[in-house]
Amino acid sequence: MKLKVILLTLICFLNVALSFNANASDQFNWRGFVAQGVIQAQNSNYIDDDGDATLKLTEVGINASYTLDTNFRVAGQIVYLNGGNRYPEGLRVDYLFLDWRAINSLDWQVNMHLGRVKNYHWIYSSTRDVPHTRPTIILPQSIYFDAFRDVALGVDGVAIVANTANALGEWEFNWSYGNSPISEEQTKNLIAVTASGDIEQKFVHQGNLVWHNQALRFSAGLLDSKFKYVSGDQDAFIDGDAQIQRLMLHGTYDAKHWQLAFELFRERSIYEDLIFPGFINDSTSEGGYIQGRYFINKDITATARLDIFDLDRKDRSGEKRAALSGGTVPAYFGFQDQFTLGASWTFSENWQLQAEFHRVKGTGRLAPVFLPNTIQNDHKYWNIWGIQLAHWF
Amino acid sequence: MKGLLSRLAQVTVILLILTSTVVFSKETPVSVLVNVEVQTDALTSSQLRKIFSMRQTVWPDGQPIIVFVLKTESAAHQALCKDVLKMFPYQIERLWNKLAYSGLGDKPTELSNQKEMLEKLQQTPGAIGYMLNINSGNKIKKIEVVGE
Fold first, then answer.
1. Residues in chain B within 8 Å Cβ distance of A170
2. Which of A127, A216, A300 is best to mutate for the B interface (most B CBs within 10 A)?
3. H or E segment at A306?
4. Whole-model pTM above 0.90?
5. Chain A partners of B46 at a C-beta cutoff of 8 Å?
6. Residue B101 in contact with partner chain A when CB distance is under 8 A
7. How many CB atoms lie within 10 A of CB B128?
8. Which keywords does the record carry (chain A) (predicted)?
9. Any chain A CB within 8 A of the CB of B24?
10. Furthest CA-CA distance within chain B
């Protein structure tokens, strides 16, 4: 699916591009960013297995767009990321799609994207790897769970982005359908290090409706996704299926010198087979964050955030799960609450320094998800700190 | 979650009341200007927000819209955001960054001063921009801002 969609997009691009003789330099735009930092997650395997300070905080990206005519353009971005254990390290196509401006009037704008499209449904999802567009280096893990990053980043498929306005305010509608490739490393992050099979995302179907005026913004969205696991050689797991259904709400309030933001979700996860034939696990997790940002001056912003995640809304303390595991999985794997203080300083045009500290209670958002790593994550309370220099152009 | 939602609802109502009482001055030193060949004469604040946030990219007659802006710190840009778009400058900058780094669109072309703005507006078909204390001129025309 992935290759097919990318090839299809490229073929569309080349076909249309070759039919135009216009001055390409007027229609071609390119930009990029580069960021390097130092980070440490003590007493956990979040960044590195040993919990020491590391330079595994590298984000580099370059993007380009080519406007074919008033209705069609092509946009793509390549990124190199190294986040330690947070997600697989390496070069990847972040997005590459054909953008069709289906309706482009003063009152309605409707775009259809075909190819590898971004997740436009959450507040920071479409630019989560671009340092100067996000409030902190580490985003709230209840929503922006790093082990799930590649799956949540976007889809190989189709998306519609629509905008309009009426007497009630301004409205946006985002819809997407497709699937994401899941690497071997990501499979181990999602299930367990002993999993040698392959996860295939059958589909992810997502939509959200946004109302906003100049100060307030609210969104409600739904996500439905199915996965299939095909076991490998000498695998500790058997073939299985999973379904994830998520309800999401988010809102922001922008004032002259400060901003409030929140995102909330409730997610039902159903696992079938996987451990033994007939195994079923149907549970609902909940979480979200509230975040305040204060613009001290035009260059310096301070951020404070409380992020809460409960793996099972009927077992918020994690005690039932701990008992079911016979004590092998501590109760603090059932939740993860995280308080963050951070600051960013734009010290020169297109240069930013960002620093932050996180106090974390619980390990419910540490990979692997299905069979947790209880050896390296043996602390209920742990800390993260990071500092990152970013330049964009 | 219910408790949290209820709290959020209360905060929302308070914020709605606060934002509904914000009054923006109608007297502004900034004029929205276009190349004289642009057929449109009047736009609402909402339509201008779509144009300056790069979501609306063609004029009603199909001609591409070319957006020129001045530096964020400039008095003209500050006045455009506050009086015409009714946004804070950081909000529109955030929108441009989201567009430029997620593939949704492109940033507008930033010019260094009003002289350059005037030249670009005069020379570029489909151009839109803004200037302080200028209502008309050779090869440019002022756009009337008509309500929300």
1. 46, 49
2. A127
3. strand A300-310
4. no
5. 165, 170
6. yes
7. 24
8. Signal
9. no
10. 61
| Residue entry with tokens 């003209």 | B76
Please state the ipTM of this predicted complex: 0.87
Model pLDDT, residue B7: 54
Cβ–Cβ pairs < 8 A, chains A and B: 105
Topology of A2-392 in CATH? Porin (2.40.160)
Does residue B2 belong to any structural domain of this protein? no
User: Which residues, in sequence order, are bridge partners of residue A303?
Assistant: A293, A342
* Cβ of residue A216 closer than 8 Å to a chain B Cβ: yes
Sheet of B66-70, strand order: B109-111, B66-70, B127-132, B30-35, B140-142
- The span from the CA of B85 to the CA of B69, in Å, is 13
Q: Cα A364 from chain centroid?
A: 17
Q: What is the DSSP string of A94-128?
A: EEEEEEEEEEE-SSEEEEEEEEEEE--SSSSGGGT
Domain ranges, residue B102: 27-145
B interface test, pick of A97, A104, A346, A352 with most B CB neighbours within 10 Å = A104
* CB-based contact, B71 to chain A, within 8 Å: no
The answer to whether A99 contacts B4, with C-beta atoms less than 8 Å apart, is no
Q: What is the pLDDT of residue A21?
A: 40
Cβ–Cβ below 8 Å for B101 and A77:
yes
Could you tell me the CATH number of the domain that includes residue B121?
Answer: 3.40.190.10
With an 8 Å Cβ cutoff, is A265 touching chain B?
Answer: no
pLDDT in tens, A46-84: 999 999 999 999 999 999 999 998 899 999 999 999 999
Whether residue B57 lies inside any domain: the answer is yes
Distance CA B131, CA B111 (A): 12
Is residue A129 within 8 A of residue A81, CB to CB? The reply is: yes
How many domains in chain B? 1
- Tell whether A43 is within 8 A of chain B (Cβ): no
Residues B6-65: tens digit of each pLDDT: 554 555 445 444 444 344 445 788 999 999 999 999 999 999 999 999 999 999 999 999
Domain range list for chain A: 2-392
Is B49 inside any structural domain?
A: yes
Q: Is any Cβ of chain B less than 8 angstroms from the Cβ of A317?
A: no
